[in-house]
Amino acid sequence: MLKKWWHNTVGYQIYPKSFQDTNQDGIGDLCGVIRRLDEIAQLGANVIWLCPVFTSPMVDNGYDISDYMGIDPSFGTMDDMKELIARADEKGIKILMDLVVNHSSDRHEWFQKALQDPCGEYGKYYVFREGKDGNPPNNWRSIFGGSAWERVEGRDNLYYLHIFTKEQPDLNWENPKLRGEIYEIITKWMDMGLGGFRLDAISHLKKNYSYVNLPPDGPDGYKLAFEYINNVDGLSEILREMKERTFLPTDALTIGEYDQMRPEEVEAVIGENGNFCSVFDFSHTFHDVNGEKWKGNTRALFNDYRDKLFQAQRVVGGRGMLCNFLENHDKPRCIDRFLAAADQNRYSIRMLPVTNFFFPGIVFLYQGQEIGMRNYPKVRLEEYVDKPTYAIYDRLLMQGKSPEEALEELNHASREHGRTPMQWNGEKNGGFSEAEPWFAVNPNYTWLNYEAQKEDPDSLLNFYKRMVAVRRRADLEETFIYGEFLPRYEKEDGILAYERKDEKNRVLVLTSARSETAELPFEGKVGEILLDNYAVGEKDGTGTAEETYGELTGSGNRLIVKPFQCLVLKLG
Length: 572
Ligand code: GLC
Ligand code: CA
What we know:
Immunoglobulin-like, eight-stranded parallel beta barrel, about 30% helix
C-alpha cells in the first residue's frame, strides 16, 4: 500500500455546538475548539473532524447550509476558523470540515432563486417535479419522516425533493453547473489549509429517478426507498469527477459517510485510486443492547457485533482502510448502546473501545467518549429538540406503541444523547457555558467530567490516552497500520480477538464480554503487556508478562481472561 500522511489517523470528532462555549451565549463555538486544542493533542489525536460550522439556519444543527463560504455567527468568524486551522497545525493536528452537499438549506440563495423561477437556471440546481393527481411525484419517504416531496408554495402541482427535512432540499448532481460550483467551494476551502473533508450523506448524491410508486412500508402510504436514493448506479462517476477536480491535487483526507459499500466496489471506493481515502464502517449502526433484538443481552450483541465487523474487514481484505469508530453525533453513547446496564462497570467500559481500535484502518473518537459520557434519558418528549427524533416518535406511534413506550425507546435510541454538552468540570453546566446551554447538560457532570479524570491515573480518560499511545508507539505503529489482520477465537462466545502481524511484530488484541472468567487455549508466549484494563494506572504496560502476569504464561497453554477484560499483548 502506498504510504500516505493520513494513514496514522487517530481522529477526534467535534460537534461544535456542544463542545465549549466561550462567549457565554450557551452555544459552543470555534474559540472553544481553539481553547481545547491542548486536550485533544494530549489525547494523541492528529486529525479533527469538525461538524458543520458554515452559515446555517440550524434546522439540522448546521447540516443545512445557506452559505458554503461563510461561518455561522453563532460559531464565530472566518478569522476564528483560520486561527483554528493555524493553531491546530502547530500541534500537528489537521482539520477536516464537514461537506454537506447532498442538499443545501432552503435559505440558500440558490434555492431562493430556484423558488422564484423553478424552470430557470437555479431551478436546475435542485430537483423539481410535477405531482400526480394531487399527490407528490411518488411515495418516497424522507429519511427524517413524512413525504420526501414538498409542494412549492403558490404552485398547485410542483414539488421539490428532500430526502432529509423539508428545509434541506436535495441538490441536483446531474447538473454539471451545480457540480462545478461545489468543486470551486471545495477548492477554496482546501486552499485555506484544511486537511480534508468528511463527506456527509455522500452515497445519496445520485438518485434513481424512475418516478414509480413503491409498495408502502407504513400505513401512511410512504416507502423509504433506499435502493433508489443510496449508492445508485452512476454514483461512482460523480464521485470520481469530484475527487479528480478537487481532492486529488491536494492530497486531502476524505472520509465518506458512505452506506452499504458493496464487496465488488471496495477498490473503486477506498482502494489506492478509490473515490475516497476511507469510509466509515457502519456495520454496527443498528446494534443497540436495549432494542428489541438484544433485550439487554450484552454477550449476544457482542457476538453479532464481532461477526459484522470481522466480515467488513474480510470484505476489504487489506485493499483499503475503513474508518473505525463507536460513537458519532448521530448515535447514542457507546457505553449505553453496547453494554446492558447490569454489565456496565469499570472493566467493560474500558474493554469496549479496544474492540475495534486496533483494526486495520483509521480510527475516530467522538467528543465525550473519552470520559465515558452517557445517554441522558428525558422525562418529557419536549426535552428533545431534534426534528428526526420527533419523526421517529411519530413512526413509533404509527406502529402502535403508546406515548410512554415511544418515549422509552427514544431514551435509548435517539441520536440526541450524543449531543449533550461536553462535561469539562464539576462546575455550573459542566464548564461548558456559564449561560443556559442550548441543550441540557447531563446532570451526571458533577462526577463524570474531564477535570475529575485528568489527574486520576486510573480514569477512563487516561486509559484512552494509553490506548492511543499504544497504537502510536514507534515500534508498533506500522504493524497496526499495515499489518495483517487475523481473527482469533472467532467461535468463542463473547470473545472478540484478533492478531495484527508483520515481519516486526505480532500483537494479540483480546476483548471479552463475558461476565465470568474465560480460559482460552493459548500457544505461544507473551512478550509484553501493552494494555490491560485490570492493571491500574501507571503500572499499565510497563511490566513484563512474567512479572505481572504469571498466569498468562505460567499455567501452560492457557490464557485466563477475567470478566470484561481486554488485553493487548505483544507476542514474543
Ligand atoms: C448525515 C449527518 C446527520 C445529518 C444528515 C443530513 O447523516 O451525519 O447528522 O442530519 O446527514 O445532513
Ligand atoms: Ca458561544
